[in-house]
Every structure is written in structure tokens, then in C-alpha cells.
Design a protein that fits this description.
There is one protein chain. The protein has eight helices and ten strands. With 257 residues, the protein is of the alpha/beta class. It folds into two domains: 176 residues, P-loop containing nucleotide triphosphate hydrolases (Rossmann fold); 70 residues, no CATH class. The protein has a six-stranded mixed sheet, with helices on both faces. A four-stranded antiparallel sheet has the order 2-1-4-5, covered by helices on one side. Bound molecules: adenosine-5'-diphosphate and magnesium ion (MG). The site of adenosine-5'-diphosphate (ADP) has 12 residues, from strand 2 and helix 1.
Length: 257
Amino acid sequence: MDRVTLKNVSKSFDDLMAVRDLSLVVKDEEFVSLLGPSGCGKTTVLRLIAGLEQPTNGEIYEDGKLVSGPGSDRGMVFQEFALFPWRTVIKNVEFGLEIKGLSKHKRREKALKYIDLVNLEGFEDTYPHELSGGMKQRVGIARALANEPDVLLMDEPFGSLDAQTRNIMQKELLRIWEQTKTTIIFVTHSVDEAVYLSDRIIALTARPASVKKTIPVNLLRPRDRTSEEFAKIRHDVLQELGDEVTLALKRERAREA
Ligand SMILES: Nc1ncnc2c1ncn2[C@@H]1O[C@H](COP(=O)(O)OP(=O)(O)O)[C@@H](O)[C@H]1O
Ligand SMILES: [Mg+2]
């Protein structure tokens, strides 16, 4: 079943074109990564799917319905966590459920379920500033999942974490995805992360973003980053991205290292 469809989507901000004629179909329960260098238009694509921006041209569908604004069928996880600092963990997770008008009892029940799922039990009454980056992002994931969305939109969610925490969170995300079967559209500029996580990688062009190449990752999970097959796909992805984009990615990697 087609979960999310983008049909010839373009987006311009005044005279700056961020996305050009981008078409994409994401299947239900699929894990798809959008891979491209900084500034290519990845966040804009996610914000369009989330309904936070309107396309200049083209249409976006979720479960066959035209997307015209934000909705609880699509949950977003941000790189900068975007938690409410004055709310405890459980109050952060309950946020969307309050908006939906769920009873106090139902909210609590659901929030606890997703706090458990992300392994944060015991931290319900903690405030965001008391948590590490990895734990903050667990809250971000629990908050998005508590609404039980059909699609989870993740914008470089592990981008600000140290390498070790990032690896742990990638594993955790796969476990959560396998448990919830939520479709995931994951934005990253890390080739390694895309190969480790995805069923399919959509390599984007430099700005304006459009689909350069779709690369299936037919490796069993858990994947071994040090294996030959992994290295081969990483190599193929870098080739496909093309020289211009590869250079931009190399600069990113050098900055990260
Ligand atoms: N609201 C906006 N107004 C004007 N320009 C924007 C806006 N949002 C994004 N852009 C521009 O669109 C381009 C793509 O941005 P973005 O989607 O954030 O890229 P990425 O997430 O790949 O780094 C950038 O040049 C950025 O400055
Ligand atoms: Mg971005």
C-alpha cells in the first residue's frame, strides 16, 4: 500500500527554488531515507509532507488523501529536539494528546506506553534540561509516536549526538520501528546512517532538491558497518550522488570528524 506520495512537488521561497519536480512513493511500513548535503532542501521536503509548508506546484498525498496542512497522521521529530523546557518528560509526551482532547487518564496511559517503548521509564517527572541529548531525542520520538501517526518524519534526529550515542539511537530506532511498524521517512546527510537504517535510500540532487537516484538496501538487519556488502553499498551511494554532491558530503564528514 502507498503510504505517502509526492507528485511533481516544487517549492520556491520568493526567487529561491528549494525543491524541484520531486516525485516519490513511500510504501506502508517502509523505512526510507532522504540523503543529501546541507542546504539541498531536505528539511523543506519534510515540512511539505508534514503540511507545515505548501508546495508551489504538485501535490502530496497521505493514504490517498491530499495533504493540505498538519495532521496527527504525520508525526515529526526534529534535530534540535524541540521539547518544551517547562514541561516534564511525561507532559511533553502528552502534549499532542492534550490537543486531541483525550481524557487525563487516557493521556497518561498512552504516554506511559510510549515512554516505556523508548526506554525512559523512571524519567517521567524529569525536565528536559536534566537529560542527555540521546535521552532528549527519546522523548522527541515518544512524543511523536504517542499520537500514533501513520508516518514518522525525522529530520536529522541524531545529527547533534556524539558518534557512540548516535549508533545506539540508530539501533533503538530500528527496534522501535520493528515494534510499531510505523512508516519512517528519515532525513540525513550521513551515507553511513542511511545505509545502516534504510530499506531504500533516495539520493537527492544539490538544491533544488529532486530525486537523483533511488538505491535499495537489500541487507539483513542488524547490519554490520564493517562488512564488505555494507562497504559496497556505501560506495555505490557515494558514486550515485555524483561529484558535486559527494564533495559537499565529504566536507560535512570532515567537519563532523
Ligand atoms: N522559510 C524559508 N524562507 C526562505 N528560504 C528558505 C526557507 N526555508 C528554507 N529556505 C532555503 O531553502 C534551501 C533549502 O533549505 P533546507 O530545506 O533547510 O535544506 P536542508 O535541510 O537540506 O539543509 C536553503 O537555501 C534555505 O535557506
Ligand atoms: Mg535541514
